[in-house]
Task: structure prediction
Amino acid sequence: MQTFGQQLINGLSLGSIYALLALGYTMVYGIIKLINFAHGDIYMLGAFWGYYVINGLHFNFILTLLSAMIFCAIIGVLIEYFAYRPLRNSPRITALITAIGVSFLLENGMTYLFSANARSFPQVLPTITYHVLGLRISNIQLIILGTACLLMILLELVIKQTKMGKAMRAVAVDPQAAQLVGINLNHTISFTFALGSAMAGAAGVLIGLYYNSIDPLMGMTPGIKAFVAAVIGGIGSVPGASLGGFLTGLLETGVQAIGLSAYKDAVVYFVLIVILLVLPAGIFGKKLKEKV
Amino acid sequence: MKANLKYNLAWLALMVAVFVLIDACEFFGIINSFIENMLVTIGINIILATGLNLIIGFSGQFSLGHAGFMAIGAYATGIITQNIATPLGFYLSMVVGIAIAMVAALIVGIPTLRLHGDYLAIATMGAAEIIRILINNFKITNGAAGLFNIPPLVTWATVYVLMCLTTIMTVNFIHSRRGRAVMAVREDEIAAEAMGINTTRWKLVAFVFGAGTAAIGGSLHAAYIQTIAPGDFNIMASIAILIIVVLGGVGSITGTFVAAIVLGALDTILQNFGTLRMIIYSLALILIMIFKPAGLLGNWEFSFKRLSQSRKKATVHD
Result:
């Protein structure tokens, strides 16, 4: 029971990171049907930004998080403007290859500028471990979970309550019709990238605090996992991405806990395939009728 | 057969001419081991990318798991030729690899090919990762360390001949009745179904065929490079093959050849740039995609038949 509780807490902290990343994937996919392969690398940029502002400018946690989110939002909008916008009407596979190219560029650019070595993330918050009911919970885990949940609620509010959020939902349903009612397509897509990248930036700072180690290739595997999480939850759906992220995190730590850590990724992919076969559009995805 | 004899002979002549050319360059020392390595890599990439182009370009199914099937071929060769270190052992291992890869493709394909577009891509990617993780944990495959000291049973000539053979088989498949069925499924699944085509079956046929060619590429890779590790067959490896297909033009075998040669040459030239290499490579990729979204050749295909026919037309006009 105790191990179960402990793994639950570990899984939730990891899952909230995946959930934050999955949100960016799901929003971008929902709006322009592009698997944004560079998303994991934006998360890496967020972590590096955190590293430099804490070391160089001695920012505190809140300031680091906010500045990383703003920095990543700007990067996301720039990537969309220069790499994806010219390809908006091209075959989708072309845009996908471009996204992979952007991902390579960010990874290798960062390797070139800052070397491939892993570096330890400065501990801006002192780690305090609480012992509750025999479980070990660190304040970092609580902060990760709390920040992630807060950001998800904020995101949900932005999407459901603001005018821009309404525009985003309209473009996701039908870009042409959205333009007809006066929605500016370019602004809406830029805004989506900004929101998604800000989430990735926050996730980058949080993972730096949690794992203490960052390097230029850190975004690759979590990026793909987070995309898998978004697909499990139902791509295009915001609550689905959060649920998928938490599920993936819990699954991974669960498999690790029963001693099969070598197979943890295989189990995640296997569950993905099974879910796709049973629910082809993911857990919260909408099934669209095929028209002749 | 007879009607196309002239054109088939022209293709055969081209293949022999290129072989003789490479052989002559080798003889006169123009091709050093560095360039030979590049040529072999290009040949293997062409085999892999042609198979993937059949799946993506001709049957319209977006697969991101090609490296998984390549890994099966590579490990079959690695394990068998370490025990039977003869050319016969190599060909036996290749056949075994192809068979296992095809069975794996059937197991993966029957459930997942019901999915569409990006969902299929993610499912095949997951399947390939599962194959890689299994290889990573099995004892017979020597785990994460991989296999080394695989006997060098492959020369550039083997790669060249097998590249020609797989291309001929793929192109013949595409131009056959089966190939037309596969392309009908790509164009419009519902219309194809209405014409009486068993869509699932033809999608599966293309997928399994592609997996078989991937295993050939993997076998050659293992026997030429002589060391393999599970890390060589990760998602990035699948993506590298996908890049060749898309860069050349989805649905153009000629394009696949051109892209594989261009990328292979680019890679060799960029070796001198050290760490800048991948930055230039990724920038080149982004720029080519932005300025040539349909790939270098689109779906244009080189054909001796069309060449001679257009020449005939030109003479008539004169």
In short: Chain B touches chain A at residues 56, 62, 111-112, 114-116, 118-119, 121-123, 125-127, 129-130, 133-134, 136-137, 190, 235, 239, 242-243, 246-247, 250, 275-276, 278-279, 281-283, 285-286, 289-290, 293-295 (CB under 8 Å). The two ends of chain B are 31 Å apart (CA to CA). The mean pLDDT of chain B is 88.
